[in-house]
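fyi for ur records
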Amino acid sequence: MEDQLDTNHDSDTYPTSLTDPQNVKELYQYTQNLLDSIQTKLQNMSDKIVSGIDQMGNCIDDLERNIGDIMTQAGVEECEK
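which gave:
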């Protein structure tokens, strides 16, 4: 999977300061930044999934419409749903 979490902990995946956290306040900020980053990435993935599902639904609707048109042109009665 392309969007898996990177275990290298680079700055693109996990935002960090130039040094490791040295006290509770820095650790809290580091953790908050990390959680914000993860939340953003999860929201982006969720948005992409929902968009893909919407596109798929539109394609299915178009396909059903086209099949109905072809059946009408062929003189075949549509089945009851």
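The two ends are 38 Å apart (CA to CA). thats all i got for now
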